[in-house]
Each structure stands twice: as structure tokens, then as C-alpha cells.
């Protein structure tokens, strides 16, 4: 599933013009090679079909998804599968400074969660959608207790996961 999403993102990225990556981006998380989105809806440009997705929309979408999944779970925890193990976790924080528009209607959010096994997991969430209606399409465990399992590398305008 993760491979399919990455391949889809890669395919979409080849259709986009390659623009320089913002120099201030943290290299361990992807960022689209396009202007950053603002957290304030009033600063967003209007697209022909409607309003652009803002960082606030991405943050709200990820928080809504986590709250919904937590509410449905019998133990009121967010669950994710990692290497065949079910991780039951509580939200610590959404990295609002690492929310990104990946282009092609794809967005990225990085979240810290504390699991019942005592470990802290950095989970990468990938979303699609429109302002006020974001949908999580994939998740990936990025770090365990701060130790990365993979990193992100920009290659000709396309972000790819690379081994640590």
C-alpha cells in the first residue's frame, strides 16, 4: 500500500514542473517543490475551482482523522500496524511546522504519538482532499523514540524515501 502511494506521488510529481525546494525545510520530511502554503486562510490565493488547501486545513484533517479513529476504538486509542504489530497510541502532537503540500492534491503531516509499549512513534500521514474535507490515504511509521527508520530525499523535484 505504501509503495503504491509513493509511486502515485512520484508519477504525479513528474507531471509537475520542477521548482527549487525551500532551503529552510527540514530534510527528513518531504516538501513540494512549490511555494509553501500559509496557515492563514485569508492569505491563500483563490484557485479557479475554489480555495487552496492551507496548513490549517491539513492540521484539522489529521486531527479529525485521529479523533475519529480513536472514538471508534474500544480502548479509545489510535491504532496503526507496524511490522505485524498493532500499536495502540495516544496523540502527543501534530508537527504543525512540518505540514506540507506535496502537489497534485497530496499533502503530508508528521505526528508524534505515545504507544502503550512506552515508545514514542513519529507517524507520517498522507492526505488528499479539499479545504474542510481532508482524507488520510496512508500512514507510515517514520521514527521510533527519535530514531528514523527512513529519511526523505529530494531528487529532481520528487521526494523519495531513502534508507537510513
What does this structure look like?
This protein is an alpha+beta fold and 164 residues long. The chain has one domain: Nuclear Transport Factor 2, Chain: A (Roll), CATH 3.10.450. Helix content is 20%, strand content 40%. It has two helices and nine strands; from the N terminus they run ααβββββββββ. The strands form two sheets. Strands 1, 2, 3, 4, 5, 6 and 7 form a seven-stranded antiparallel beta sheet that branches. It has a two-stranded antiparallel ribbon with strand order 8-9. The longest helix has 18 residues. It is globular, with a radius of gyration of 16 Å.
How many helices? The count is 2
User: Mean pLDDT, rounded to whole units?
Assistant: 78
What percent of residues are in strands?
Answer: 35-45%
Helix/strand order, N-terminal first: HHEEEEEEEEE
* Coarse shape: globular
Oligomer: single chain
Q: Could you describe the largest sheet, including whether it forms a barrel?
A: 7 strands, antiparallel
- The beta-strand count equals 9
Radius of gyration: 16 Å
Number of domains: 1
- In terms of structural class, how would the helical and strand content be classed? alpha+beta
Distance between the termini: 21 Å
Amino acid at each position: 500500500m505504501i509503495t503504491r502511494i509513493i509511486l502515485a506521488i512520484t508519477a504525479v510529481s513528474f507531471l509537475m514542473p520542477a521548482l527549487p525546494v525551500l532551503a529552510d525545510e527540514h530534510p527528513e520530511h518531504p516538501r513540494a517543490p512549490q511555494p509553501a502554503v500559509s496557515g492563514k486562510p485569508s492569505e491563500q490565493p483563490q484557485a479557479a475551482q475554489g480555495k487552496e488547501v492551507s496548513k490549517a486545513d491539513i492540521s484539522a484533517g489529521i486531527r479529525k482523522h485521529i479523533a475519529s479513529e480513536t472514538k471508534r476504538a474500544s480502548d479509545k486509542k489510535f491504532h496503526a500496524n507496524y511490522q505485524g504489530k498493532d500499536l495502540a497510541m495516544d496523540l502527543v502532537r501534530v508537527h504543525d511546522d512540518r505540514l506540507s503540500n506535496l502537489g497534485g492534491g497530496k499533502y503530508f503531516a508528521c505526528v508524534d504519538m505515545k504507544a502503550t509499549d512506552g515508545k514514542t512513534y513519529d507517524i507520517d500521514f498522507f492526505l488528499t482532499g479539499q479545504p474542510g474535507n481532508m482524507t488520510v490515504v496512508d500512514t507510515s511509521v517514520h521514527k521510533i523514540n527519535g530514531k528514523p527508520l527512513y529519511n526523505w530525499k529530494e531528487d529532481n523535484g520528487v521526494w523519495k524515501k531513502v534508507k537510513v
